[in-house]
## 1
Amino acid sequence: MPLYCGIVGLPNVGKSTLFNALTNANALAANYPFATKEPNVGVITVPDERLNKLAEIVNPQKVQPTTVEIVDIAGLIKGASKGEGLGNQFLANIREVDAIAHVVRCFDNDNVIHVDGSIDPVRDKEIIDTELIFKDIETIEKRLEKLKKQAKTGKPQDVKLVEIAEDVLSKLEQGISARAIELDDDGKAFIKELMLLTAKPILYVCNVDENSVKEGNAHTKRFQECVKDENAQVILISAAIEEEIAKLDNYEEKMEFVTEMGLSEPGVNRIILSSYKLLDLITYFTAGEKEVRAWTVKVGSKAPAAAGVIHTDFEKGFIRAEVIKYEDFVEHGSESKCKDVGKLSVEGKEYVVNDGDIMHFRFNV
């Protein structure tokens, strides 16, 4: 099942422009609210210099990077939790994503209309936070009503769930997002089951003007101060610049443009990598003459599950995994040389995959 990162924000903050830059999917980017009426889904390539290095060493017939799916969701306005604007659709769409990239507008431009008439990223963030919390409160209240009826039987598990639900509800009513609530394993499982909107991991993307990409501006400084206690990453990008970079024909032209802007890499690269980490993902590689390929697994995945990403038969008939660390492969230059110097390990079903592992699976079906 693919993992999705949703781009959210108020109308006209640059969501669709950023989506275009990320995916080249040409989502409609217009100067009026609700230009994106249906969620656009794009597949984005995860940049990884390790893959390029492995390709240089192995010289395969094909190089295949890993990908993650990103969703551009219709803009939200105040009152969305009560159905205002496209609120119901927005909230339904955001419930389906695994993580959130929240775009806030941090640039002044009289030609681009703001839905609330002025530029204030802190206010914009609070509008979305409030609407998501309101919807989560509604979700918890409905579930709590059912749980209280179940708890009348006196079953300890039902009673505990009532306590968990009441605690979460209390925190939400104080304006605390579900992701910031400390819970035990039962509580975490309960939150996950409910698919609470404010429980999803979040990345803030400050959309700035061209001159503010490196150092930020008054808007971004105020916003960063606002979110300093959230343990969330904040990235500064100019969505308009990123869209221009994405339109260039090849890598060399793109990097020349980036260099001229005084940057080390396109901003979308940082967003993609941050989204990847936000989704709790890591990469392992397979490397052979036919193909060098990056594969995606969740942090903590064991070897059979990693094999299953390639093909379900690999997981069903898993025998063992032959593993080489990326650094060792680069140092010694081939699988055979790594084996000769004892840098190839044979691992069983309990092996937990590490980011950057180069793996070869033995299986029998």
Note: The CA atoms of residues 133 and 176 lie 8 Å apart.
## 2
Amino acid sequence: MFARYRPAILFPVMLAAIFVLLVANLMIGTVPIPAGSVCRILFGDESQSEIWRNIIFQARLPQALTAVAAGAGLAVSGLQMQTVFRNPLAGPSVLGISNGSALGVAFVVLLSGQIGGTALSRMGLLGNAAISIGAIIGALAVMVLIVWVGNKVKGNVTLLIIGVMIGYLANAIIGVLKFLSPDEDVKSFVVWGLGSFSRVSGGEMVLFVVLMAVLLPLSFLLVKPMNLMLLGDRYAANLGLNVRRARTLVIVCSGVLVAIVTAYCGPIMFIGLAVPHLARALFRTSDHRMLLPATAVCGSALALLCNIIARMPGFEGVLPVNSVTALVGAPVVAFLLFRRRSE
């Protein structure tokens, strides 16, 4: 009986968890703020402490909304990659798109300093914009290359191998740039590579959330082709699916999601790889009509949880998100997978 009504129960539970975690993100930090004050500040009560209002509206709320959007985007992207390649180890970075973003940022942070004497990344707001633009250009350049290769080769395995090789090539170029760059620029690039939800604020946060709010619903248009792709290329083609075009559309959608998230937040690992498995284990389904929204809400919840841990009182500054995502998510996903297997 529970299995029949599992989605109807779990979806409200996950949405409630996202709301609770969102409020907790506004409360918890080096400066704790009571839940009642958080609610009153959000509803426009100007009698509350101005310091608390600034902390919430200028730091914690943009950070929490960024985590919600980024977690959902990375999780959906990972599910799309795992569906296209029918490989449980596939993730958003499997085709080298994240590496392309890193290479674009490396040109801005490392190469620009060697050419012009001063790295673009040190130029305040202009530097932040240059990093975002470099990440997007690098990711989209790799994605265009992958799409072109995908139209030339038939097998998913071949495309997967080529994507991995592109990632290795990008890492090799980044390694050379690190070796030739001064320590200060290398440190800036390494800090960017650790990932963070706190880099997005103000107008950037609004633009990021709007982009993700547009791209994520577009992903739902690919639900039917993704369900057919689970049956195998030959069977899907017999049912009338243009496999090559469907594969290209899914890769483009996944690549754009990864490019936007990486440009604003840096390379966030683990969420895209693990959350689809978490959603399958919780919702007990492979139907993308249910699995895609389930993956999105699970990704948002996990990202919010990791963001809370990264900002827990007692830590100086903010812990790297990449360290927290793997530390928190890996045991949870492993437990659910073992439990599902034993059942």
Note: The chain is about 75% helix and 0% strand.
